[in-house]
Amino acid sequence: MSILRNGMREVISHAVAMAAVAMLLTAAVSAPAAAETWDEFVNGLWPEAEAQGVSRKTFDDAFRGLKPDLSLPDLIVPGKKRDDSAGQAEFTKSAFEYLNPKYLSSLSEKGRKFLKDHEKEIIEIERRTGVDRYIMVAIWGRETAYGRHKLPHDAIRVLATQAYTGRRKDQFRAEILAALKMLQEGVPREKMRASWAGAVGQTQFMPTEYFQHLEDGDGDGKVDIFDSVPDALASAARQLANKGWVRGLRWGYEIDLPANGDCSLEGPPGERTIGEWRKLGLKRHGKTPFKPAEDSISAYLMMPSGSFGPGFLATENFKVIRLYNTSDLYALFVGDLADRIAGGGGFHVPAAKVAQPRTAQVSEIQARLAKLGYGIDIVDGKIGSNTRRQVGTYQKASGLKITCWPTEDVLKSLRANPASNP
Question: 404 — phi, psi (to 5°)?
Fold first, then answer.
């Protein structure tokens, strides 16, 4: 659901580094600015829409008088500087900012009331799908604050703009076609309010997800994710279930690293059973130790702020939450909010006020690590678990302090090695 964003700005002063960044920009942002006009784009979309069963009337009504919204994040617009401080909070805020305890506490209070008000339907959805009731409610809270957050954009305009001149044109082309199909099948245009990335409904479905995971939550024989709370929750739960949710499994555990442990062990490639992690010296943080029955659970180390904040063992259900919105911070937020609604929650080790590096800095670090043979598959400027892992591995090999965070010191070290030039 969630869509990744980049922003680039010049950060290098000397000529060699400027050339490296220019090459990096070519690699990281490969989609060119739109060569076709808006009208040409719309006309070219029609045959594909028609092939998906959209009538000419539905299509024309959707685009009548519509112009692209060039104020949206993540666009490639000639002459416009991209702003990497705008866009999806999961990738523009630090863990300290995103995992705000006061906001989580406020949402958990509202979530407990919400759960009580809809308890009968939610328990039935949990029974049917296997998805934990608290996770369902937490997703609702994170996405639209239990319906209080009013989505600001017209979905058709947003999706069409992103398909026309966004960084991920092909992905959004599929989404605008699915949105047109929603209109064709009777979803009123006025209900199609969206986030800047085009997610709709109370639990924020991308249009392509809409057609895969709808579920009737109130038993009235139809599904309405816009106005029916049970339908929105049931559809969100069905999406999680369809993506592999494991009934009865926790999303993860906050842990303490042993003295000889470090964050370069992070990420899915290092996944082990909890029993194996325990043999390496990891312990569950707090007064509740791991239970013997949990030894067989597979999990990977996840440290969203590198060594500057808390560490977690993330289970299969954490991965499933990430498939709802592809972000470690999002999944952590949902997991902690669910725990708080259930009467627990709160991290023992708070995220430190570590600076969130600019996208250009992260992109250059990624590109230079890739040039040196480190396992960076995508240069996107986003600080995911693989980037943190590779940074930590580089720091360990270079004799630097192991923080797994793409700091200026890491960048200076990389720049000092000519072999890392992209």
Answer: 60, 30
* Burial letters 281-312, b for 16+ CB under 10 A, else e: ebebbeeeebeeebeebebbbbbbbbbbbbbb
Q: Tens of pLDDT along 193-208?
A: 999 999 999 999 999 9
CB contact at 8 A, 291 and 246: no
Span 342-347, average pLDDT: 89
Question: What are the b/e assignments for 74-95, b being 16+ CB within 10 Å?
Answer: bbbeeeeebebeebbebbbebb
Cα angle 245, 247, 250; round to 5 = 85
Beta-bridge partners for 166: 75
Is the CB of residue 75 less than 8 Å from the CB of residue 86? no
Task: State the amino acid at position 236 in one-letter form.
Answer: A
Q: Which secondary structure element, helix H or strand E, spans residue 385, and what is its range?
A: helix 385-398
Number of other residues whose CB lies within 10 A of the CB of residue 67: 10
Q: Note the Cα 204 to chain centre separation in Å.
A: 12
User: What H or E segment, with its residue span, contains residue 153?
Assistant: strand 153-154
End-to-end CA distance of the chain: 31
Q: Cite the beta strand spans of 287-411 per DSSP E.
A: 298-302, 304-307, 311-314
Q: Which residues on adjacent β-strands are paired with residue 255?
A: 284, 311
Alpha helices in 350-384 (DSSP H): 359-371
SS3 321: helix
Which residue's structure tokens are 């990389």?
A: 414
Query: Tokens in use for 316?
Result: 């299969």
Determine how many CB atoms are found less than 10 A away from the CB of residue 122. 25
pLDDT of residue 82: 58
